[in-house]
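Notes to self after the call with IL:
- keep both proteins in one doc
- input above output, always
- annotate only the second one for now

Protein 1:
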Amino acid sequence: MLNKVVIVGGGTAGWMTASYLKAAFGDRINVTLVESGHVGAVGVGEATFSDIRHFFEFLGLKEKDWMPACNATYKLAVRFENWREKGHYFYHPFEQMRSVNGFPLTDWWLQQGPTDRFDKDCFVMSSVIDAGLSPRRLDGTLIDQPFDEGADEMQGLTMSEHQGKTQFPYAYQFEAALLAKYLTKYSVERGVKHIIDDVKQVNLDDRGWISGVTTAEHGDISGDLYIDCTGFRALLINKALDEPFISYADTLPNDSAVALQVPMDMEKRGIMPCTTATAQDAGWIWTIPLMGRVGTGYVYAKDYLSPEDAERTLREFVGPAAADVSANHIKMRIGRSRNSWVNNCVAVGLSSGFVEPLESTGIFFIHHAIEQIAKNFPNEDWNPNQRVLYNRSIAHVMDGIREFLVLHYVAAKRQDTQYWRDTKTRAIPDSLAERLEMWKTQVPDSESIFPYYHGLPAYSYMCVLLGMGGIEMKPSPALALSDPAAAEREFAAIRDKTRRLTETLPKAYEYFAQHH
């Protein structure tokens, strides 16, 4: 039986993998994690999809167990600022799309929207975020969403199995380094062997499979399955096994970032329960509020902006609080390995692939990959079909997210700099071009978006298209023949619920100050 796993590389990817495999297989699996004491983590991935809660549930962890240790906060949406024009913003929230008479409420909004704000007319969460509120009351009870928290029949499902069945009202924001530290303790307590050492060589046998890794101080370390969590270096999958890398740079040119971790008085500042993406002249700036600090960074394309100008712009954006904070400059490798599982090696995290962090996909990619490893864990015959299924699933997720992110730039109305003007003439995936033509006359639905699981439902595409404002959207012609009364009642119900919640929910900082 194959049961010896060697994970090369720590950080969020390595320790999420180690902890998940231990939770899945217990003492029936032997896990060794080797990480360098000298290679720093990229550490820009601090925001998540709402599906990440399934990871913590699988490990048996409650929010009270891990959130205070990671300075974590709630994320109810992504807030996009200045993508349409300066001063404009909209939300892409975590909230189930309502439908009326078989049509999504956004379709009715195009026909007869009460205001010019689709996100506030069609979703409750947008107003909750604007008010800086928590999705949980001070006693810990969850906002009254159409969701059965902790339902037994939903336990143990993968993210793809959950999609369409539930929509949890929030995701998380946390310090990635602190989560890795927390999961290190969790994993070691459950039997993971932790070795701090530098891998000097990856050894291959006559077949080209990995036979072991040679470390500086611990000699040779061998296993059955090797998991590459070495980040953009891709020490095993790309360097040792020479697996080709497929670049996405032709459609997603942002290849650089500069990040700051800015200590702030969050009681005074308040916590906006969302991740904000603010468009800039040559990219965009993320803002992630945590307990005790704000994580922020400028994602840009080096063909349009120098690292020095990017850092200067970011510091000016943050203000005086950033004056004495050191900056972390990051060169991003955008794209994916052709195959993320080759022979007896699986790449997870940045070594597998990465797109820019616009919709907080980095930790989602890790979570999805380790679910698929557990689902397709090999035995002695190394059935190649398991590798095929795994690689197909990873490729679909990466390629689907690529399409979704390209849509942001194609749909953005902004064209005031060369960077933004070029987003309208740059090549886009052929399949996205075909879909865009359909969406101009029929809003996206599950049948017209990227056809394989990639973590994003159809309403996400609607939010981007309606919010960015660069592509004219039209309601379904059938709505002209339909009675609008039911849609009007739904819009009114959202207004009523919004009013009740904004009058009763606590401020996000107040909630975390009590529960941390």
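Protein 2 (the one to annotate):
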Amino acid sequence: MSKTSIKHIAEDYNLSEKELLKKIENFGIEMVDDKHLEGENLQLFIEMLNEEIREEKGNVIEVDNKITVQDLAESMGKSASEVIMKLMKMGTMATINQEISFDIASLVCAEFGFTLMKNDSSEVEELEIEALMDIEEDDEKDLVPRPPVVTVMGHVDHGKTSLLDAIRDTDVISGEAGGITQHIGASEVKINGQKIVFLDTPGHEAFTSMRARGAQVTDIAILVVAADDGIMPQTVEAINHAKAANVPIIIAINKIDKPGANPDKVKQELSEHGLLVEDWGGDVISVEVSAKKRINIEGLLEMVLLVAEVEELKANPNKRAVGTVIEAELDKGRGPVATVLVQGGTLRVGDPIVAGVASGKVRAMINYKGKRVKQAGPSTAVEILGLSEVPFGGDQFVEVPNDKTARLIAEKRQALQREEMLKSSSKISLDALFAQMSEGKVKDLNIVIKADVQGSVQAVKQSLEKLSNDEVQIKVIHGGVGAITESDVLLASASNAIIIGFNVRPVSGSEQVAEKESVDIRTYTIIYKAIEDIKAAMSGMLDPEYVDEDTGKVEIRETYKISGVGTVAGCYVLSGKIMRNCKVRIVRDGIIIHEGELAALKRFKDDVKEVAQGFECGLSFVNYNDIKVGDIVEAYIVKAVERTIE
């Protein structure tokens, strides 16, 4: 056992430190210092303390709702192996740290001559702890206006970072003392005496991974679009993320100082994606800016304040602190460090908090300028030290009355997390759709569509949305061109959607993310097949399907033109194996350009049945010669699989 403080043991056994020190003296146990026990002495003291408690209570053992084999053995003064042997004789297999039910524990205790009783106080305490995690509703009279929290989103190279830099410079010019140095994942600026908080986490991350964990941290999204470039795939993605999060959008048309700038073209393209700007009779605010020349930056900030005023953002600063973890890391010198956004109440140094599975006392708080602060009110981002471990981005943090409560809640959450990891995720899948419809679980079926061309995206979207009925509303939350990426999988996970790929494949890594997030990815080459599958799933009439089982991936590294034969590919097997009788699909830049069969598979000059990973081979394809160096050949076999409704 590691070193443990007297204070913690006293709290666990509901004794005062004075009483505990007296018992240590009576038992003749040697201490490390006047505050700690460790090693064998700690183990011996705990055993002797348990024995004394047992003698006081007779053969009655009180336990909480959940008990492990180790705890039960210690309570009876028996070894864990003795308890495990009894459990095995009773037909129950359990490890030393495994939890067992109260009924089974009662039978084991009876075998050793003990009576097991539930600890009523622990049940009451557990209910009290649960109540602590429920955030009380605020009374309208306690609410005061709070600053807006803003995320900047947009396509690569459209000027997101430059715009944030320009905004910070504006703040310095407007009279903020000293320069603003970035120390944490958020920054604050003041305009007309009012504060605005900008989150520096990547826009998509703020709307996906956090929203997937149930956190809504952003009040307003600024969508940056370059005036000389227009709407790009990532811009469309950003629009869909912001719409899914249901936050107001302000359009910042950047780079208006460039010669090819055409703001009207941007506004027209935005209208095609359901964003009609105010100039054109819509309700979306747009501001023309230049981050490089610092043009109209203050105008943009004033618009943010205007939207914030309309939204009537308020919070109660006079309650226990609650908020969200923006990002967290393990620092070599400082231990677990978390950047948190306080959303309600006021967080102070010394407050005990729980953040996800982490707990601790706030040892120090550092603001966006790198300065230590004593407290942080609503809509304030600070870096905090003092947590037991690194929480996840998107975890909620809550202030609790004391350290012991914080530890209990964190331990309970860790146990629940372990249980959840052992259970399969309940994300929606096409196979289970009808069963979930029957139970009334599904109201909306969210779909992410990726295709090889924009026309296909629109065609698939229109066809699928027509399938909506009284029970299920089909909503396409995002449609894009290109391979299925990790960002698509994260969006699908956050929105509990399925992904439909038409003539495209998942990029490397996205399949693993989909498996981890339990996101259902379906790829098709024929539109009506996708429509048929969803129709069948909705009616619970799924036929047995023929599934493509990938056997290997091969990279084309050289091509040779041979008269009378055609083009032959010199290849290297990247993973799995390629077989003579398998089918193949040729993928170029994430898009399938050909599906067919092998004409020949060779090793050197010999025909072979298969070639395994790590070996080179020669391939030629039936009636297809348009191959290039860098193309990926995916080998697969077709298997008939019975489809069941779970």
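Annotation: The chain has six domains: 3-58, 61-118, 147-313, 322-419, 436-541, 545-641. The domain at 61-118 is CATH 1.10.10.2480 (Arc Repressor Mutant, subunit A).
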